[in-house]
Amino acid sequence: GALLLGAILITEYQLPESLAHATVKQMYTARWLTFAGLGMLQGLIAALGNLFLIGTYVVDKPLYLLFAMLLSLVFVSILYMLISLFGNIGKGLGIIILVLSISGAGGNFPVVLSGKFFQAINPWLPFTYAVNLLRETVGGIYWPNLWQDLIILVAFGVAFFLLGLFLKEPIRPWIEKMHHITRKSKIIE
């Protein structure tokens, strides 16, 4: 969901003159809040659809809904940082993370039965902890696992948000040069 949101919405924009005094960090945070709100709404709608349209069995429905919104917030933070800093290249990186997550996070196939590459990247994929967190709400909660997954996911979300917040301004000249080169090459629109 966050990837689709990132692909559709614009991360670079021109401020109206009345807001031209805003700092890069203020603009980054304001735009992130927009994506975060939309992403959490999208996560809530998807989770409600799973419960009431599909009839998914879930032991702890309130936590399931809360974690669906939290997961959306974490993935919005990751993708917003990538797209805000790197533009279309960031979207490509997001797709690579998505593809690796499908095979390497254990959501649809046990990781222990996957190749060594996927077993090696499994702990580094935020989707691993997202799948585990939702499994806790679906099958019954084992609190030590839930807290571990929750802490790791929040750390991913906060780390990516802060990386974007503090790197946006310093690498801005390099990013603008990169955007100019990619537009000029007509490889990426």
What does the model show?
It is a single chain. Helices cover 74% and strands 0% of the residues. With 189 residues, it is an all-alpha fold. It has one domain (25-185). It is globular, with a radius of gyration of 18 Å. It starts with a helix and ends with a helix. The mean pLDDT is 88.
Produce the secondary structure layout.
Elements: H1 2-8, H2 24-54, H3 61-86, H4 88-104, H5 116-121, H6 126-139, H7 143-167, H8 172-185
Helix pairs in contact: 1-3, 2-3, 2-7, 3-4, 3-6, 3-7, 6-7
Spell out the key features of this protein.
membrane, T7SS_ABC-Transporter, 189 residues, 8 helices, Phage_infect_YhgE_C, mainly alpha, 0% strand, ABC-type transporter activity, Phage infection protein
Counting DSSP E segments of at least 2 residues, the number of strands comes to: 0
Query: What is Rg?
Result: 18 Å
Secondary-structure content class = mainly alpha
Q: If you average the pLDDT, what whole number results?
A: 88
Count of helical stretches: 8
Q: Level of helix content?
A: over 70%
Assess the beta-strand content as a share of residues: under 5%
Number of domains: 1
The low-confidence parts are: none
SSE run = HHHHHHHH
Distance between the termini: 22 Å
* Sheet with most strands: none
Q: What is the approximate shape? A: globular
Membrane topology: Multi-pass membrane protein
Transmembrane segments: 32-53, 65-86, 92-112, 150-167
Domain ABC-2 type transporter transmembrane: 24-166
Pfam families: ABC2_membrane_3
